[in-house]
Design brief:
single chain; alpha/beta; FAD/NAD(P)-binding domain; eight-stranded mixed β-sheet; five-stranded parallel β-sheet; 24% helix; globular; disordered C terminus; binds flavin-adenine dinucleotide; FAD/NAD-bd_sf; Auxin_biosynth/cation_transpt; NAD(P)/FAD-dependent oxidoreductase; oxidoreductase
């Protein structure tokens, strides 16, 4: 077993932000703290995003603390642009991310330490910073008949880009940002598209300003304070009306049907007798927090979520969760990294953040 002060699980925006602040606080990467990530390359979940999600199509990527992304070609896939940026970042700050290293479980260890069981061995740590995002836990709802569908079913997490849908009749399920983006690009090549969502989508006019951002974050914050599972950002912010979505709406691409009642062998069907034949069903139904490795610590509340006090799990002050709930955005992840390290430093009895650089 290797003893360290802090194990950071996940090297996405949240994990790297924490690592940056740990280093600034005087903790040595690789000795006092380790960062473990099971993905093959730098970039967090961005490395897996589909090629047509180009850098100019992301909603707003906040730079990691201490280093700007700089000029980037907006037409390049965000997976490449952000992957390269994260690589430069890890090198510049000598963060020494261990990858690919999977963290299987975290449980109570000896002497007040947490036992982190990973594919490269066991760590005994005083503090755990879990920054594992949501990409590894796609949410795929169950509907009757789903297993009998003779066509192609896939989730956003495996979306290959629009070309694969050329000439097909496609049903897209889900009213979030991913669902609308998939639809708009698939509609250009598919034989036919159908959009189904559980709720009537809410379209938002104008910019999503700072005040709206703060209000949205506050709503999600309140949920995790109560131990409820965090909700999706779109359920709080609504979908943006911009030139692209306006055009798609005018062309009928974003005309939505209510959720179907069952999947058939050849499509989807509603109890009122309506049927849509389909070759593919794309489930753009979102993601859940990837926190299975924390199960042995029993942090969940009866409401199904992990109750949080700031970035700390209410049931265990040694456990911080970053990128969870209100910090599940690039700016939120940045702030959470800083706030968590302030707390961690206090728990470890070290000098405050910023005292050592
Ligand atoms: C399609 C899409 C587009 C988005 N666009 C934007 C945007 O434009 N702007 C924005 O602010 N936000 C956006 N988001 C939200 C975005 O995911 C967050 O802002 C941010 O990138 C998440 O960072 P993170 O560090 O929390 O998670 P991630 O980037 O998911 O990083 C988590 C890391 O943890 C690792 N990991 C997970 N489980 C384990 C384990 N058990 N053991 C070891 N390693 C593990 C993963 O390999 C991964 O590298 C988008 C999300 C999606 C799905």
């Amino acid at each position: 077993m290797t003893a360290v002060d802090v194990v950071v699980v996940g090297a996405g925006q949240a994990g790297l932000s924490a690592a940056y602040h740990l280093r600034r606080a005087g903790l040595r990467p690789g000795t006092d703290f380790v960062v473990l990530d099971h993905a093959p390359r730098a970039g967090g979940a961005w490395q897996f995003r589909w090629p047509s999600l180009t850098y100019d199509r992301v909603h707003g990527m906040h730079a990691l603390p201490g280093m700007e992304l700089g000029e980037a070609d907006g037409g390049r896939p965000s997976s490449e642009v952000i992957g390269e940026y994260f690589t430069r970042y890890e090198e510049a700050f000598g963060l020494r991310v261990h990858r690919p290293v999977h963290v299987e479980a975290v449980r109570e260890g000896d002497g007040g330490r947490l036992r982190v069981e990973s594919s490269e061995g066991v760590y005994g740590t005083r503090v755990l910073v879990s920054a594992t995002g949501t990409w590894d836990r796609p949410f795929w709802p169950r509907y009757p008949g789903q297993d009998r569908f003779g066509g192609w079913q896939l989730h956003t997490a495996r979306y290959p880009g629009p070309e694969a849908f050329a000439g097909l009749r496609v049903v897209v399920v889900g009213g979030g940002a991913s669902g609308t983006q998939h639809l708009m690009e698939i509609a250009e090549v598919a034989a036919e598209t159908t959009w189904v969502t559980r709720r009537e989508p809410v379209w938002r006019e104008g910019d999503f300003g700072e005040a709206e951002g703060r209000a949205a974050v506050a709503l999600v914050e309140e949920r995790v304070r109560q131990g409820l599972p965090p909700m999706s950002v779109v359920s709080v912010t609504g979908l943006p009306l911009n030139e692209r979505t306006r055009r798609a709406r005018a062309e009928g691409v974003l005309e939505r049907l209510p959720m179907f009642d069952r999947v058939t062998e050849t499509g989807v069907a509603w109890d009122d007798g309506r049927v849509v034949e389909a070759d593919a069903i794309l489930w753009a139904t979102g993601f859940r927090a990837a926190v299975d490795h924390l199960a042995p610590l029993r942090l969940r509340e009866p409401g199904g979520g992990i109750r949080m006090v700031g970035t700390r799990a209410a049931r265990d002050e040694r456990v911080h969760l970053l990128g969870y709930g209100p910090s599940a955005s690039t700016i939120g992840a940045n702030r959470a990294g800083r706030a968590a390290v302030r707390d961690v430093v206090r728990l470890l009895g070290r000098a405050p953040v910023g005292a050592a650089t």
